[in-house]
Amino acid sequence: MKKKNFFLDEAVHTPRYDEEGFSIYTDYGRHGPSQDLPRDLVEKTIRDLRLGRLYDDAFDGPKNAVGEWGYSFLNLDNFASSFDVYLQGGGWRRNTPTDDRDALAIIRRWLFTQFAAAPHSLEEGSAGMGSFNGHSHWQHYAGEWGFDYIGAEIGENVASHQAHLAFSRGAGKQYGKFSILYFSDWYQSTTGSWEETNTWEGFGFPDGGHSMSLLKRTYMMSYMGSVSKFVFEAGACLGFLGPNHRTEDGLLALSPYGEAMRELCDFTHRHPDVGLCYVPIGIVLDYYHGIAGYSLQDGASLKCHGKAFGYFDETPGDKMTWDLFALYYPGGGLLGGYMAPGMPMEETYQVNTPYGDTCDVLLQNADQRVLNSYPVLLLSGDITLSAEEAARYVAYVRQGGTLLCNTAYLKYFDKYAAAYQGGTRQDIPDGEGTVIVYGPDYSVENLGDILQEQLRKYIPFTFSEDVEYLMNVKDGSLIVTVINNKGVTKERLGDPVVDETAAIDLTVTYTGETAVKAVRELYYNQPVNADGNTVRITVGPGDYRVLEFVFD
Q: How many domains, in total, are found in the chain?
């Protein structure tokens, strides 16, 4: 059997483009300085400077998008949301689920009841529904329930950007939907504001909100990571100095946030085709994982850690999944580190990792075509496989896939259980593929080396230091984005602190068989120190480089 070329398998890739291509949205905002800016001038400035498309919310079409609904369910009972929707009936004080299936059904009923009225007009089964959760990794449930745009609000007090990318992109692929990431500048009850008259009701400060470094790194991760849509939340509020500040052309003068937007959008306009992000590993979670961020209903945050839907006691499978993401994204994980209850430190939002951004998250019920599109699948969580589902994974192996199977799941695979002889690792061939059985039960302690081994097979690059990296495939070239997430810290108020000693002298080596014709850096258009297949670059603290290896 000819070895599958995963680079060219369209099923590997999350749907990326609608009819207009990658979409950048500049959100007009519901409050803040934009109230003082003439809308026609805002529209002209955004259009002339090519800062995305201006909308009153994150989506065009019907205004039936809902954000942070997982957080709202767990925290905002009897509460007027920012969209003036009075939320009630949510949370576990009012509801007592009998099991995880019942818990998800309760959440579904609450969602389509609470957001049925305008301005959301959410109607199950209608077209154009959009979902972007925040603290809760419930993207796949939105896919199950018919949402067309699936993603997450990040920035804000929502850490674990890379995990949200993996969940959003994987859900988009599993359900054939578009993925969206939505960046909020809100950070520990502050946001940026550069106007002389501050209308953020006491929350806006020139040194508030997130660092521009994080904004840039988040955008680059999203664009190069094959996200369909990126939203600058309240970008029209944050991007300008105010109505009295104009350019020589009569446009609104840009704030530091607006300058960052212009730089990022300019890169996208200069390089509208960066191919599709190649993701070799599919992490398969139990359908009812219910991974939640935090809930304040008990009077304290972080009560949700390891608890499905923020309610049920942690199981060994739940703990395994949290440990897995802590391994994949050291210091980031599913929530990131916290400096106070509910308040993640900015340096945990994106982290350097030995594994790069190389995984998507699927649920156990993904169909055969989606499963077969990944060279490697990794089972994790409190999985109970039906006979039909187990047969899907056997078929996946036999057609050439590699299944990383913890010893806890052997009970679903009689053939592999019979062949397993004990120990912390055993490779079991089956058809054209392999099952790698590892233990102990529900533990990831022996998984790191296995992941590295698989990435060496399917990512034809090595990196001398831990960085965040993404690989994109396009005709005639491979593009590698490297991001150094170290060296920039930001408190809720105060200018970012940059540690210049955190710069990384990085060697990137292409390990494939095709001859490299040239290497060029795309973002800064800087000369590249290339020696054959090897490139040596310095990546400053909080900075990134985009390297294109050209083959013909």
A: 3
